[in-house]
Amino acid sequence: MATFSGYFKTKYAAEKVISETRLDRFWFVVLWALLIVTPFAFGSYSLFLLNQVMINTIAVLGLNILTGFTGQVSLGNAAFSAIGAFVAGGLAVQVGIPFWLAVPVAGIVAMGVGILIGLPSLRLKGLYLVLATLALHFIASYVLLKYQIPNFGPTGLKVPRLELFSIKIRDDGAWYWVLMPTTYLVVWFSVNLIRTRTGRAYVAVRDNDIAASCIGVNLAHAKLSAFAVSSFLVGIAGALNAYYVGHITVEQYPLSLAIDYVAMMIVGGMGSVVGSIMGAVFMTLLPYIVPWVAGLLQTILPFLSGWISAHLFEVRAGLSGLVVMLVLLLKPEGLYGIWNDVRTYFREWPYNY
Amino acid sequence: MNPTVLLQLVVSGVAVGSIYALVALGFVLIYKASGILNFAHGEFMMASAYVAYSLMASLHFPFWISLLITMAVAALMGAVVHLLVLRHMVGEPLFSVVMVTIGLSSLMRALVGGTYGYIERTFPPTFSQVPRTLLSAKLSVVDLAVVAAAAVLVVGFVIFFKYSPLGIRMKAAADYQEAAVISGVNINKVLAASWAIASLAAAVAGVFLANMQVFNTEIGSIALRAFPAAIVGGLDSVGGAILGGITIGVIEVLAGFLFGAETRAVASFVVLLLVLIVRPYGLFGQHEVERV
User: Which residue of A has its CA nearest to B271?
Assistant: First the structure.
């Protein structure tokens, strides 16, 4: 994948490097500089949004490994997220296990459930798999509710405040330093996973699983490990969210959350790590943009602005559905596809034909 | 459990199951025609319930007239949705098409919610509240009406698919799409018709369901619980949908009685998962043979 026209690889080693040009490496340094400056440059509200974006990014990247890379469709993400949250919260409250242990354990439990639900995927495809994961969602919600009500009552459980190395993590600025490295690690893992033998096996399974098994891909291994990795990451996102929000109930993980994650992945661009991040950013911020747009329209179109303010809930809910539909109808490659088009346009200008 | 209680439970299970059967029928019709699952089916039910409610509460139409008008409106709505949206998704990956219908469902919920609000409403009373007695089991009139309406609709569908030219074309297209197109079947028209008919079934289910209980914009979530019905029967079997719907209805009511009301919803999903593990293509569905 040459970034510049006229840039061709002449050595096999060149195929393996992750940043291909000096410009790539330059942007990488800029990215790190931005990541470090961000918490000092932004106010607490922006950081609150950013932290939400990062938690969602982890979950969407997990989902992207399963659906985007491996092509196994799933509506069970909210269930994995809830399992992660309740395992971490339950361990923290009832056993007193610290954060750094509770979160990985939550991920591993979610991973176990993921492998379990992955087993039918060896026989099921397409819509039948969607429905199997849908069944998992409702069964998991029921089981977690059975755990929540007798132990913590209908108001749910309060997760203790996070304390790392005897530093109390209270405000969004401190949380940024917990979430940013975690998100970075997950992004790094996703980018590299797809470059490994396993990652390529995933893509082969997505494109045609029967053909993949004919060229020697172990289908059971590929599908189950994709389920495992994906549910581990989604479970971790759920556990982090539990600590971040500080309070969890089963109602916080409805089916619509699973649908939101899928929507983020699709809007960003299925099967692309950058796209997943873009989708998580866009769809997380969309509900917050609506009142801001209404404010902008106040002078130009007061009627429309008033209508949006009066129907904020409906506009938000309807808009996310509309965005998903429009993306799928007009640009199935998502935001990443648009970004690629723009980049190609400028790179090849003025000979873009 | 004495026989009277059992009979009572089975009878109310059949009434609930008739709704599921109608919903599952809608899933199967669209699945057979286009190979996709319509996640907005519940929202078609919900929108239809509100249309019928408006006709009755605001315009004071009688129930049966409102039901017929609503069926026509729903059929139109289904065809329009196909022509505006789903027509452009032919050939896209399966999950994308499913996500389009999910997006459509949140859009429809927002539109109806914005128009009617979210308060719980009740239909103007139509059905007598005095239950009838059959073999010592008590039957509410609305339950009987649901079973009757479902039966009439199913018989109507059977006649339609067997004798009407459009119905025969639809069957042909579902059977072997390419061959049907070559023989002169207008596939676009056939798909629009299947969306219209599925929405019509959704309208009947939605209106009767809203008459059985209070309703708000969340009433369509019942459609998710009809997925097990469609799967148990097999996604591509019309007869299976009816049988699956009634089976799931009876299982839900029995589970609710035996293990407490909150197990009702989850029982059908346990059945769904078991069926998928044991017989992935349903009891009456056809195993797909795939070529690389």
Answer: A135
Closest CA to B33 of B181, B183, B164, B206: B181
Q: Which of B167, B172, B201, B283 is nearest to B236 (CA)?
A: B283
* Residue B59: φ, ψ to 5°: -100, -5
State pLDDT tens for residues B129-162: 777 777 677 777 888 888 888 888 888 888 888 8
Under 8 Å between Cβ of A176 and A47: yes
Helix or strand (DSSP H, E) at A247? strand A247-248
To test the contact with chain B by mutation, choose from A267, A329, A330, A333 the residue with the greatest count of B C-beta atoms within 10 A, namely A329
Q: Do A99 and B251 meet the contact criterion of CB atoms below 8 Å apart?
A: no
- Residue B166 has phi, psi (to 5 degrees) of -65, -40
DSSP string spanning B58-109? TT---HHHHHHHHHHHHHHHHHHHHHHTGGGGTTS-HHHHHHHHHHHHHHHH
pLDDT band at A2 (very low <50, low <70, confident <90, very high): very low
Interface pTM, i.e. ipTM: 0.85
Residue window 98-117, chain B: list those with CB within 8 Å of chain A: 98-100, 102-107, 109-111, 113-114
Half-sphere exposure at residue B59, Cβ-oriented, CA atoms within 13 angstroms: 12
Q: How many angstroms separate the CA of residue B164 from the nearest CA in chain A? A: 30
Q: Is B138 left (phi over 0), alpha (psi -120 to 50) or beta?
A: beta
Can the peptide bond before residue A160 be classed as cis, meaning omega within 30 degrees of 0?
no
Question: What sign results for the dihedral spanned by CA atoms B172, B173, B176, B179?
Answer: positive
**Distances from the Cα of B163 to the Cα of A89, A238, B72, B144, B166, angstroms:** 61, 55, 21, 29, 9
